[in-house]
Amino acid sequence: MDPLLNPAPLASKLRNTLVRYHSIGDGEWRVAKKTKDATVWCKPSEEFSGYLYKAQGVVEDVTNRIVDHIRPGPYRLDWDSLMTSMDIMETFEENCCVMRYTTAGQLWNIIAPREFIDFSYTTSYEDGLLTCG
């Protein structure tokens, strides 16, 4: 993998994209899952084949402890049952890194295990966090 010499422009673009996605009107999203504490919405992406997802909920805990479970790191393996391994390949700042992870096979390995390399970015926004990978 070629080194990313200056992640600042990519991080800035991702932050702007996250804010734009967050600003999409509620009428364009459909509820994918709802519990008493959280709601997840989805909508078809206009940029890639797949869906955008947004989640909102209230978790009563220390903010940094929650963030540690969202951003890439060892806690991610605790709750994401599909993820079988994860390595942070390069960290640019606390909220910005390149990670490689593998997912388990599904449906009796009809869907094969896969490996991904993602640029992960998390930023504070208003009274919460926006994150993407």
Automatic annotation (TrEMBL):
* Domain (START) ranges: 10-133
One GO MF annotation is: cholesterol transfer activity
Write out the GO biological process terms.
Answer: cholesterol import; cholesterol transport involved in cholesterol storage; intracellular cholesterol transport
An example Gene Ontology CC term for this record: endoplasmic reticulum
Q: Which domain of life is it from?
A: Eukaryota
> What is this protein's record name?
STAR4 protein
